[in-house]
Amino acid sequence: MSERMINAARETLLLELQEASRLPDRLGKDFVAAANAVLTCQGKVVVSGMGKSGHIGKKIAASLASTGTPAFFVHPAEALHGDLGMIESRDILLFISYSGTAKELDLIIPRLQEKAISLIAITGKSESPLAKAALATLDISVEREACPMRLAPTSSAVNTLMMGDALAMAVMQERGFNEEDFARSHPAGALGARLLNRVHHLMRTEDQLPVVTDNATVMDAMLELSRTGLGLVAVCSQDNLVTGVFTDGDLRRWLVGGGKLEASINAAMTRSGIVLNAEARAIDAKEILMKKRISAAPVVDGGGKLVGAINLHDFHQAGIL
To answer: Distance between CA 131 and CA 24 in Å, rounded?
Structure first.
């Protein structure tokens, strides 16, 4: 029993891979025309399709939307009951139908022509009504579905998904869409945390900010270390410029060396320590701390004045690993 199931699964995968392997040779002038239409579209790319084609169409629309092309999915039946009003002349309709003869097209195509809406077809039949009405046709035809009855969309569904990905990726690269652009449409994800967060979004401020002036004593700095638990105190001049830092390590070395708690902090602090810019990307700031093998640093503004402090735990809490 298990051997039969494995063999059936293996045959399915091999058939789908075989059919998909033919797709690269079909990329030509129609693919370029489709990609250019998406690139120059002044409105939205509206994706539509029935059944399995519709399910994959939702994924294609989502891929386009997350890579710089405004796009959404509309069900053909909903389109015929009011949602066609969402589509304007500056939009593009990308319709998926393997046969290219979905009955909804009989009503949709004339409406598109009336409104001068461009149509891109993803179909397996290059002579179908859908293909003939489209400005560009992306060929996802297969010689055989992986279904043993050759009925259920399997190989053709994989081809549709891959052709949609090919279109989205080609347009994305031509558009110059980069990691930061991607992160802006995924602000809640790990990539968004890494690329969108700046140091000032994560740093500690106000009562959580450990700071003493440069006329303070070691005792003052030690109490500030204990109060905030950051492992570091920023030492600042009267005009709030950072002159040094005092860390847990500095305190231990000072006491082991026989230093007095009543002494000036200037004698015990580390001068010219690492400071981070408030506008720096959080991921870059974290890399600085890791490279310097320190756990925390003061944060300054463009003028070098203290505005906050941050440590590695703050980066980890924000999902910047």
So the answer is: 19
Q: What is residue 140's predicted lDDT score, i.e. its pLDDT?
A: 96
Separation between Cα atoms, residue 63 and residue 47, nearest integer Å: 11
Q: What is the dihedral of CA 252, 254, 260, 263, to 10 degrees?
A: -120
Say which residues have a Cβ less than 8 Å from residue 46's Cβ, sequence separation at least 6: 71, 72, 73, 74, 86, 87, 91, 92, 93, 94
Three-class SS of 58-99: HHHHHHHHHCCCCEEECCHHHHCCCHHHHCCCCCEEEEECCC
Domains and CATH numbers, the chain: 2-177 (3.40.50.10490), 196-317 (3.10.580.10)
Kindly report the pTM of this predicted structure. Answer: 0.67
Residue-level pLDDT at 272: 76
**DSSP bridge partners of 121:** 95, 137
Q: Report the alpha-carbon distance of residue 202 to residue 276 in Å, rounded.
A: 12
pLDDT of residue 131: 95
Strand segments (E) across the chain? 45-49, 71-73, 92-96, 118-123, 136-139, 211-213, 232-236, 242-247, 270-271, 276-277, 296-300, 306-311
pLDDT score, position 91 = 93
The residue type of 232 is: L
Integer Cα distance of 98 and 128 in angstroms: 9
d(C-alpha 227, C-alpha 146), whole Å: 67
User: Which ranges of the chain have pLDDT less than 70?
Assistant: 1, 178-196
- Which pLDDT score is estimated for 183? 56
Strand partners, 248: none
Which of these, 194, 181, 178, lies nearest to 282 by C-alpha position? 194
